[in-house]
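Weekly structure sync, notes
Attendees: PL, DS, HV (note-taker this week)

Item 1: siroheme decarboxylase
DS walked through the input record. Source organism listed as mine drainage metagenome. Sequence as pasted into the shared doc:
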Amino acid sequence: MMDSLDRAIINHLQGGFPVCANPYAEAAKQLGTSEIELLARIKKLLGDRVLTRFGPMYHAERLGGGLSLVAMKIPPNDFDRVAGIVNRMPEVAHNYARDNVLNMWFVLATETPEGQQNALDVIEHETGYPVFNMPKIKEYFVELKLRV
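Item 1 (cont.): predicted structure, written out as C-alpha cells:
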C-alpha cells in the first residue's frame, strides 16, 4: 500500500531530480521529509516492485551510443524463457509483451552505434528467434507522467 508520501515522491520525481551536491537531501526538502526517509521509501518502492526502475534517462545518441526499438515474434510457450535471456542483457530496457504477432518489444541502448548489431546478434543467437530492429529516425518528446 502506498501512502500520501509515497505518491508525492513518485509524482514529484517524475518531473525532474535536483542537480546539486546533495540531490537526495534537496529532493527530500522539496517533499517535506528527510533524506533518510526519502532513500528508504525509494528502496521500498523498488523492492515491492511498485517502481521497476529509478534513475536517469539518457539520450544515447547524444552520448555517442545507439538506440532502437526492437520487436520479436515469440511462441507463447517460449515467451518466459526468451524474456529471461533478453532481460539479462544490460543493453535492454522496457521489455514488455504486446497482443500482436510481434509480441515482445524492448528498447535496446548501446554505448556505440556499432554495438547495436552486436547486441541484436547475441539476442538472435541465444534465443533462436529473429529480431526486428527499428532504429529511431526522429525523436518526439511526449513527457509521459503517470500520476498516482
